[in-house]
Specification:
The complex is a heterodimer.
Chain A: E1 11-14, E2 18-26, E3 33-39, H1 49-62, E4 64-65, H2 70-80
Antiparallel strand pairs in A: 1-2, 2-3
Chain B: E1 11-14, E2 27-32, E3 40-45, E4 52-57, H1 72-76, E5 86-93, E6 102-103, E7 109-112, E8 118-120, E9 132-133
Antiparallel strand pairs in B: 1-2, 2-3, 3-4, 4-5, 5-6, 5-7, 6-9, 7-8
Classes of the chains: A alpha+beta, B mainly beta.
Chain lengths: 84, 137
């Protein structure tokens, strides 16, 4: 991984048109909180990595590998019908 | 209420960007479940990935207050469909205990029903979890 040192109000440019700027640093050491400003084209998705990771994990957990159980789906369908 | 048409022929869907975690799987069949009236469907991969499948739900049948905002840039990726040409689905996690089934409201699948292009979108709205219980116990 490329590691760069930047000060507050300094920025880096990634590719053609993505700018990441250090806006504010609070605290120090492991408790430091860094606010980043991001300028990117509207078609570039910017996500907190933990959100992205959570969605990948949810998809992987939801993936049904192997034969699909029609019985299971029918049972699930029955669950969706109000029982009262 | 969800769409009420009878189960149709499986529809071939194109996911140009794949799904999150499955970037290389681009083609799925959307298979209606008999009797489900569009509330539950199966998304079954094709092109050599036939072992991969997802169970998807029509979210508004279970979460009437669900109001995901899909950015225009995301819709542009599937041909900027008009509002009446958008079908929204959410992926379910179906455990052995069916009562504990969850839906991924954070990352719905949006489909252009005219072109059959589809895309999974991560919402910026933090109200929606990746595991929302489908059934109130």
């Amino acid at each position: 991984m490329l590691v760069l040192t930047r000060r507050v109000d300094e920025a880096i440019i990634i590719g053609d048109g993505i700018e990441i700027r250090v806006v504010q640093v609070r605290g120090s050491g492991e408790n430091a909180v860094i606010r980043l400003g991001i300028n990117a084209p509207r078609n570039v998705t910017v996500l907190r990595k933990e959100v992205y990771d959570e969605v990948v994990a949810a998809n992987q957990a939801a993936a049904d590998h192997g034969a699909l159980s029609t019985d299971l789906l029918q049972a699930l369908l029955q669950q969706t019908k109000p029982s009262k | 209420m969800a769409e009420t048409q009878a189960p149709a022929q499986p529809r071939e869907l194109q996911f140009p960007a794949g799904l999150f975690g499955f970037p290389d799987v681009h083609r799925f069949q959307l298979v209606d479940l008999p009797g489900a009236e569009g509330i539950l469907r199966q998304l079954v991969a094709t092109d050599g990935h036939e072992e991969l499948a997802f169970t998807v739900a029509y979210p508004f049948a279970f979460f009437p207050e669900y109001a995901p905002e899909i950015p225009d840039e995301e819709l542009a990726e599937i041909g900027s469909p008009a509002t009446d040409s958008i079908l929204l689905m959410v992926i379910l996690q179906v455990p052995a205990k069916l009562q504990e089934t969850t839906a991924n409201l954070k990352a719905p699948i949006v489909m252009n029903t005219r072109t059959h292009q589809a895309r999974q979108v991560i919402l910026s709205d933090d109200r929606y979890p990746t595991q929302a219980r489908l059934f109130r116990s």
